[in-house]
Amino acid sequence: KQEVTQIPAALSVPEGENLVLNCSFTDSAIYNLQWFRQDPGKGLTSLLLIQSSQREQTSGRLNASLDKSSGRSTLYIAASQPGDSATYLCAVEGSARQLTFGSGTQLTVLP
Amino acid sequence: GAGVSQSPSNKVTEKGKDVELRCDPISGHTALYWYRQSLGQGLEFLIYFQGNSAPDKSGLPSDRFSAERTGGSVSTLTIQRTQQEDSAVYLCASSAAGQGETQYFGPGTRLLVL
Predict the structure, then answer these.
(1) Calpha distance B8→A32 (Å, rounded)
(2) What is the pLDDT of residues B52-100, one digit of tens each?
(3) Phi-psi category of A55—alpha, beta or left, where left has phi over 0 and alpha has psi -120 to 50?
(4) Which listed site, A2, A55, A76, B77, has its alpha carbon 20 to 30 Å from A63?
(5) Is any Cβ of chain B less than 8 angstroms from the Cβ of A93?
(6) B102 → closest Cβ in A34, A96, A103
């Protein structure tokens, strides 16, 4: 059974810092990995999707990498802003098509 | 175009009552998913519909839970004889073709069973 772990569970940084969120998964037989953002009381917003054949994806200040063989992904946020404060969720899609989620990293960017 | 919509946004019910939650996926999306997010459990998969294929019900926690998708579009998740442990946020997502595609999530329905 696929298990997804996210470290750290919570992170607080001053505005302007670059930061890295980590995600690991136990079964490397995945089709893709997605990073989501969730604001309090809201649904999930997709940030980046990395197909299993890809190594990284970039969108603005966000960069996600995937090392499928070692079961790891990182989300890099450059020049963090208070508006980046949210919970970031990592999820992998396997052969059964549904997403298996990590428990999330709660990020606070202090002004 | 419009994103995934869900209704109601909030639902309070008494233990033992039945509830119906509705999801309107993005127009043209053939795949539809239901997930549940509860304190201490994180986000967990419930059920998946892909086109006219039989749904994947492997995530439904008990036979009190059922879902249908009419006309390949709108979906309804039904919980019969609700229990307090059913209290959670129920999230619906859709994607263009299922496997390998980005899943777009609705805002969720917050269910509280008293």
Answers:
(1) 31
(2) 888 999 999 999 999 999 887 999 999 999 999 999 999 999 998 766 7
(3) alpha
(4) A2
(5) yes
(6) A34
